[in-house]
Amino acid sequence: MQHVIIFGEHQRGQTRKVTYELATEARVLADVLGGKAHAVVLGSGAASLAEQLKRYPLDTIHVSEDADLDKFLIDPVIDYVEALARNVGPSVILVPNTMYGRDVGGRLSARLGAGLTSDVTEIKVQDGKVDCVSPKLGGLAITTCTFKNCDYAIVTVRPNAFAVQASGGSAEVKQLEKPHAGKSYQMVIEQDVEEGTGELGLEEAPVVVAGGRGLGGPEPFQTLLRPLAEALGGAVGASRAAADAGWVPYSLQIGQTGKTVSPPLYIAVGISGAIQHKVGMRTAGTIVAINKDGGVPIGEFADLLVVGDLFAIVPELTKLVQAARAAHA
Amino acid sequence: MAGLRPHHRKARRVKIVVTLKVVPDPNGIKRIDPATKRLVRTGADNVINPYDEYALEAALQLKEKLGDTTVSVVSMVPENTKEVVRKALAMGADDAVMLSDAAFEASDVWDTARVLAEAIRKHGFDLVICGGLSDDGSTGAVPGALAEHLGVPGLTNARHVDVVDGKLTIQRETDSGYQVVSGPLPAMVSVTMGVGEPRYPSLKGIMGAKKKTIVMSAHGDLGVNDALGAAAAKTELLEVGVPATRAKGEVLTATDGAEGAKLIFDFLQHRKLI
After folding, report:
1. Are residues B144 and A107, on separate chains, in Cβ contact within 8 Å?
2. Do A147 and B179 touch (CB under 8 A)?
3. Which pLDDT band holds residue A260 (cuts at 50, 70, 90)?
4. At what angle do helices B109-123 and B142-150 cross, to 10 degrees?
């Protein structure tokens, strides 16, 4: 494995931050391996994302806005990436460890006969071998895996784990040719429905403000948590109790059977912090909790637990953050 | 055309296969022994991977809706987890295939998907339903890889699954909402917990499960002749480390909203997070 290919995930041209993290890491890795750093960006909006990516130290950015990429689920995407990988030759393929990225990674593994390591937070190269570090079992263990018996390695990278550095960009943008021209695809995307407010994906938000049973209903997620999350430039999440009660969609649920997040800052509001929630957020940088009960489990691992009335504290905190942001702007 | 009543013709039987992994109970107490680097479980049993219970629930809901449908479980697990697999039968699955062979040990994503695909193809299927992740390995990559190995459409992250006249339609969860995606059968679907809370086995179900068939299948039964497990795997575990445990932080009491907000704000500023 010599080259590096990053999969530039985006939603209709709206870039995901993790894509820039991958672009930055790709250069580091390609230099150590003595190869080239490629990016592949597909679907409607790909050309504008390619322009953004030109600020990063990549060698080539491969683009296609083939209509099939948006009309059919994932198969055309995999065909494009597979064709590019075979053209580039033995390589490490970095994809974000998101719902979509995991899907892409698994399929490429089957197509390319590639090894796959998941949720990676650090990549080390020793004597040409690529070793990947990932937290497993909800952060209970840290594993290091290497690749063998394969020409291609798929690494699904945890968002927020790698730095972003936009410099040294001089990449060439190339249009990809359609692989398997004339092939018909079967999984039709019939509708694309927006439910949220177009906020950042939970898994890559730099700040997560999560609410639990203590919020008492769906409204405080909108009236209390969302303004605080917006002031902090983050996203709203929830505990399973809140999702089970139907206060928020399951896509916001953090913890076992939900999402795992690792933001620099996690604010838990009215969440007790039982083990099934803890496994989804304990690798966050800083954890702050607000709860009326000083004896809740989250007090055992939060960096700060403020015992008090969340309905009084959160609006005041939002005001302080907004004022600080305004003073800086 | 004697004997054919076109308007009352029964739909073809739908064969559903649910993939099922067995994992250490997520609610059990687990720790890594720093000396042996192995997982130590105290008082924790093996359970059905919680995500796969949602897959089974989705399958059982379809069976109830469609009528003439069979739900089979295919599980790549050690032989001693038979009673865990039997819980799936108690919940309502019709039968199970256990792929138990030392040769499968230390399989990675690529190999697991390949072996499951062989077994599922051999069993026959119209629809394969998977959980989205496993609670222990949590690569989340097996469903996609499985669809590729089976060579069928793979519709992932479904929060709702429906089959009408042999056509599959799902609501596929995305980060900002959902997509409606449709495709033909045979196909593979992976589900999220949006499909609904998995049912508990009824007493009748538990009694009935004792009479249901669990077929034991080994390496040689599958017709996979090349290397398997650790020998075929394309990844290798080099090291298991123990992360630094999070220390208990400060616990401060706020008498009113302004005081609480100030405590947090000052803390965040001190840590340069604002």
Report:
1. yes
2. no
3. confident
4. 50
Give dist(CA A78, CA A69) in Å, integer: 10
The domain in which residue B49 lies consists of: 12-232
Residue with tokens 């590019």: A84
Strand B177-184 with B167-174, pairing:
antiparallel
Q: pLDDT band at residue B29, thresholds of 50, 70 and 90? A: low
Q: A20 pLDDT exceeds 90?
A: yes
**B266 close to A (CB below 8 A):** no
Summarize pLDDT for B61-116 with one digit per residue, the tens: 999 999 999 999 999 988 888 999 999 999 999 999 999 888 877 778 888 888 99
Q: Is the pLDDT of residue B243 over 90?
A: no
Residue B250 lies in a domain: no
Whether pLDDT at B2 is above 50: no
> Does the structure's ipTM exceed the value 0.90?
no
Which CATH number fits the domain that encloses residue B108? 3.40.50.620
Q: How far apart are CA B190 and CA B58, in angstroms?
A: 10
Residue A47: helix, strand or coil by DSSP?
A: helix
Using one digit for the tens of pLDDT, what is the confidence trace for B144-182? 999 999 999 999 999 999 999 889 999 998 877 899 999
Interface of B with A in 186-225 (CB under 8 A): 192-194, 197
- Residue of A311, A239, A304, A314 lying closest to A272 (CA atoms): A239
In a domain, residue B158? The reply is yes
Give contacts of B241 with chain A, Cβ < 8 Å: 141-144
Q: What total of structural domains would you count in chain B?
A: 1
Query: Does a structural domain hold residue B246?
Result: no
Which of B110, B136, B258 is closest, CB to CB, to A115? B110
Q: In terms of CA atoms, which chain B residue is nearest residue A290? A: B260
Q: Both tokens of residue A60?
A: 């080539």
Q: Best residue in A17, A257, A283 to probe B by mutation, most B CBs within 10 Å?
A: A257
Average pLDDT over residues A224-237: 95
Contact list, B172 vs chain A (CB under 8 Å) = 73
| Distance to chain A for B186, nearest Cα, Å | 11
Q: How far apart are CA A101 and CA A12, in angstroms?
A: 15
Q: Would the pLDDT of B36 be above 70?
A: no
Distance of CA A233 to the CA centre of its chain: 16
Strands A141-147, A129-136: parallel, antiparallel or unpaired by DSSP? antiparallel
What tokens were used for B208? 């009935």
Examine residue B270 and state whether it is found in any structural domain, yes or no: no
Cβ-Cβ contacts under 8 Å, A288 against chain B:
264, 267-268
Domains of chain A: 3-175 (3.40.50.620), 202-328 (3.40.50.1220)
